[in-house]
Amino acid sequence: MKKHNFYAGPSILPQEAIDGTIKALQDFAGTGLSLASVSHRSKEFDAVMNDAVALFKELLEIPEGYSVLFLGGGASLQFAMVPFNLMKKKAMYINTGTWSTKAIKEAKMFGDVIEIKGDDFFSIPKGYNVPEDVDYLHITTNNTIYGTEYFEDLDVNVPLVADMSSDIFSRKVDVSKYAIIYGGAQKNLAPSGVTFVIVKNDVLGKVDHQIPTMLNYQTHIAKNSMFNTPPVIPVFTALQTLKWIKANGGVDGMNKRNTEKAETLYAEIERNKLFKATVTKEDQSIMNICFVMNDKFKDLDKDFLEFATQKGMIGIKGHRSVGGFRASVYNALDIESINALVDVMKEFEEAQ
């Protein structure tokens, strides 16, 4: 029976990226050595890093004056690196959920934080003003736990910083509107272990305080992400994924397939008497689709999860903090998996 991978992260990757990594683990670039044991200073891996950066810039149409970095520490380390590098006195954060909350906690160590938060995390706050004297505005573009997503790039008069861990390469992004874009790669790009950062070079070097060497973006820009040993295997897999994205229509191609998947699943959630979506319709993520049982059928939660798992639906249990169900439908997930989940939902409905 085919398994359909709906895990939120680490999550599904293109089979081509997995196969390419397996091959390189056996013999990397004809060196006769495994990717796992080759020097990151070798010309073969240097080419991997350069190609990954170049393809990143090509696919996202990143303008001149920006650097692309591959670092360690996950997005969680970026929660501290961003204010370390950008905050002089205060910043503004839009709190849309768990990851925004964690980022805010770190930022408060570096200065004042203006926090914008809605009544709950099932919609994105709107109608706020951004003070001109904040050092930057920080947003999390996709909320993996609650299932909300930004679909347009904000227009603000201060540096804009975005955590795009879970929706990078899923839609067109006007990078020129951002000072920094960062994210953990273990959702749409690579296995866990590497973090991508897109940074506008001229926003750096303006804070008065000292920055530890490893936490200074300029350190990594100067050394092409190789100031210390980079996460070699995840970077290689990221390159394979970037090649797959390009071969499948680029970012526009990804957005088209993701929109089709999301529309198909949301339509079934709306149609099916057993389920309901949890997020305000205009903010519903096309990456992490969250839903629960309708009030009348709440006692069927466990039964549906067991039924779906038996049918090969893996990882659809909602995050422990919100419950219900979550289908993470990242770029590499085929429409076949969505159709299979829809069939399972219909079958379970008919059995009640």
Protein model, in words:
The chain is α/β, with parallel strands linked by helices. The protein folds into 2 domains: 15-247, Type I PLP-dependent aspartate aminotransferase-like (Major domain) (Aspartate Aminotransferase, domain 2); 249-350, Aspartate Aminotransferase, domain 1, CATH 3.90.1150. It contains 9 helices and 12 strands. The strands form 3 sheets. Strands 2-8-7-6-5-3-4 form a 7-stranded mixed sheet, with helices on both faces. The model has no long low-confidence stretch (mean pLDDT 97).
Short description:
This protein has nine helices and twelve strands. It is α/β, with parallel strands linked by helices and 352 residues long. Strands 2-8-7-6-5-3-4 form a seven-stranded mixed β-sheet, with helices on both faces. Strands 9-10-12 form a three-stranded antiparallel β-sheet, covered by helices on one side.
Mean pLDDT over the full residue set: 97
Largest sheet, strands/sense/barrel:
7 strands, mixed
Cα gyration radius (Å): 21 Å
CATH second-level architecture of the largest domain: 3-Layer(aba) Sandwich
Please tell me what the overall shape is.
globular
Task: Estimate what percentage of residues fall within beta strands.
Answer: 15-25%
> In order across it, which strands form the biggest sheet?
2-8-7-6-5-3-4
Order of helices and strands: EHHEHEHEEEEEHHHEEHEEH
Structural class: alpha/beta
Q: How many strands appear in the DSSP assignment?
A: 12
Termini separation: 24 Å
